[in-house]
Specification:
heterodimer; A: about 260 residues; alpha/beta; six-stranded mixed sheet; B: mainly alpha; ABC transporter involved in vitamin B12 uptake, BtuC; two-stranded antiparallel sheet; 13 helices
Chain lengths: ~260, ~350
Amino acid sequence: MSDIVLKTENLTKRYGGVHALESANFELRKGEHVAIMGDNGAGKSTFVRQITAVEQRTSGKIWFDGKEVNFTGPIAAREAGIETVFQNLALADDLDVPSNLFLGREKVLFNLGPFSILDRRAMRKATEAALVRTAVKIPNLSNTIRHMSGGQRQCVAIARTATFASKLIIMDEPTAALGVQETAQVENIIRTLKENGEPLILISHNMRQVFDLCDRIVVFRRGRIVANLRKENTDGQDIVSYITGAKTGEAELAA
Amino acid sequence: MAQTSHGVGGVSYDAKKRTWPAEFNVFLALVILVVIFELIGRIFLGDSFLFNTRSDVAGIFNEARLQIIILQVSIVGIIAIGVTQVIITGGIDLSSGSIVGATAMIAMSFAQVATVNGNPNPKAMFLAQGWTDLPVIVPVLVAIGCGLLAGLVNGALIAYTRIPPFIATLGMMVTARGIAKWWSKGQPISFPTDSFAAIGKGLMPVIIFLSLAVLFQLIMSYTRYGKHCYAIGSNEDAARMSGIKIANHKILVYVIAGILAALAAVVLSSKNLTAQAGMGVMYELDAIAMAVIGGVSLSGGRGSIIGTVIGALIFGVIISGFTFLRLDAYYQEMVKGVIIVGAVVLDQWRQRMRALRA
């Protein structure tokens, strides 16, 4: 039990009459990378939004880091150690890399409330360390994010999650809008996270990527978890059958 | 020659390709403008715009002209410091001119002397209460209170009712002007104490303007408040997701803008030794223009106080230049309008060019 980072029990979300998520039971262990797959509208993002408390769940329980949790909002979830890389990047275009990494939790020299003096040198150093740890390549830290490529921006967003010793990283289609080379760069960062033993939930439509990067694949269909498979025990064909509904019934992990 | 520097993760880049600060372009525009006036003056008037041509006055430069250039923009410049912060945060403040009017009236009535030429001061509203010959701190604090209140209303409206800043501050613009007229009852107030009159004497407005500019430039560059201004103006959703308290921050920004407008009112009424309800009309637009000319982007996220100060100087040079060329004051207004629109067009064009290059 102690090596379980995240657990949900009968997690349910309804929007009026729409059952977006039905009784989702999910577990994530330390150091594990789990992929969430499924068609559009299958409940993947809804599931993530309940965990990160962007929305409040209808019913069900969530345990995180050994405790039952009821986050009041995404900021509370983040403070507890759940970092999310959103589909629409949460970056400020006109700020440089360190400012974006530390946005909302700046290091300060003197605490004077809103007029606290920033510790720019410490933030720059920590940024460099985080970028090196995640093997992100950025030419000039002092440049604003505005003129960076989609891949570089995504890398900065991911490096942000790695800066704050998070206990769980969730990525919602991090490579959906990226080119081949940029996708490879982001995937390399995810591999680095794996080596560092940081648990990850990856939402993706990319079968190759999922088999490359993750240990386990969870398939959502019509708001339910229909498959939960180790990647050794399955293949792309099998997963597609679950996604499309050709195969039904909950496929449990072969113990 | 390409000068390479090393970035993170083994990437090297051409250090020369770093975009230079936008303030540099604005400064260049200022220099070009001065050169144009100098050339026109030399060729057509046989007089110098910038340099001292009189043998009876010492110095290389025409110091009187330099003083006028900066003195005439100092008071609006103080407002522009606040407006710059508002625009960087992605807002706009149309109420500052009216806040100047209302604050000048109210503060001036707390800065009255008891007797004028041996007779009781006819303008002293609070003569009966004995609130005359008060120390200078009283009218100044009253003014700051007025600015704070106006900014608080602006900020709270924008943060909590989510109405566009344009509308909220337009409402304050009309309301504050009404307050100014109601307080004045159609009469100017004009017998300030000596200590109050000292605030705007001589080059004091310039000193106050530049000190405030330095203070707020430091705040914008080195504090959490400044960083959050840029973050909110650049991507409000990202700022919210990052845990920045948007509502509190916006209120603070408008409060600071209100207080700066109030300080401008103190300096202005002290300099003129009088306050009237019509004071500060159109100041809000001049202040916005200074910021925009100084490279502050109306779409938020970009600009600086230094830029606005240079923008204010450009403003001053144009006004002085027109006087120097003996052109009618009407032309000044027309040209001002053209420059404001031109600066915004330039900003849009600059953004497009940058997007193309990236």
